[in-house]
Write a structure and sequence with these properties.
3 helices, alpha+beta, elongated
Length: 193
């Protein structure tokens, strides 16, 4: 054989396509991956249910009373969740408090009305409000500094932080002032009795 023929044979061998994988082997990998993803999802769901079962000592959420007085403040935005007060990663999932949703907040002299389309609404009586602050995060949601309105309230024997973000973040400061002013007036009234 001449060197030209050998070179042509070598080039032809290089141009051959790669070996085709077996269709059955490829399907086995795809099915295995789908089963693994489903298993991880199932584990996450079981963890969510387990957390809810651990928090079943939390009383039912109060509903808003009929005939609420004139509102002091109102906002629309997002509800990002609730945690144990002071522990921003300890999410509360019992009674739907772990479900993120749109929210319509209304602050009245009677308390805080939280209306969540597609999730459980609840009402925080004025006597249960403990304060409000601007923060940057709550379980699963981190924003810029001061981008989250966090309202602290008592429910049963537990203090709860609930995180809200208004569609107009400039409203947050007025909410903090109003809730804290309401809390101090309630505390002062209670001390006079």
């Amino acid at each position: 054989m001449t060197p030209a023929v050998i070179q042509l044979a070598a080039e032809a061998a290089e141009r051959q396509s790669a070996e085709v994988t077996s269709f059955g082997a490829r399907m086995a990998w795809v099915i295995g991956l789908v089963v693994f993803i489903a298993f991880v999802y199932w584990l996450m769901r079981q963890g969510w249910k387990w957390r809810g079962a651990l928090q079943n000592d939390l009383p039912e959420l109060p509903a808003a009373p009929d005939g609420l007085p004139q509102h002091r403040l109102a906002l629309t935005g997002r509800y990002h969740g609730s945690t144990t007060a002071g522990q921003w990663l300890d999410r509360i999932v019992a009674h739907g408090l772990g479900v993120r949703s749109r929210v319509e907040l209304t602050l009245t002299d009677a308390g805080l009305d939280v209306v969540r389309p597609g999730a459980t609404d609840f009402f925080v009586p004025a006597a249960q409000l403990r304060g409000a602050r601007l923060d940057k995060g709550i379980a699963g949601k981190v924003l810029t500094e001061g981008g989250l309105l966090v309202v602290t309230w008592a429910h049963g024997d537990k203090l709860i932080d609930s995180g809200f973000r208004s569609d107009r973040a400039a409203e947050h400061a007025a909410w903090v002032e109003a809730v804290n002013l309401m809390n101090s007036s309630i505390t002062t009234e209670g001390a006079e009795r």
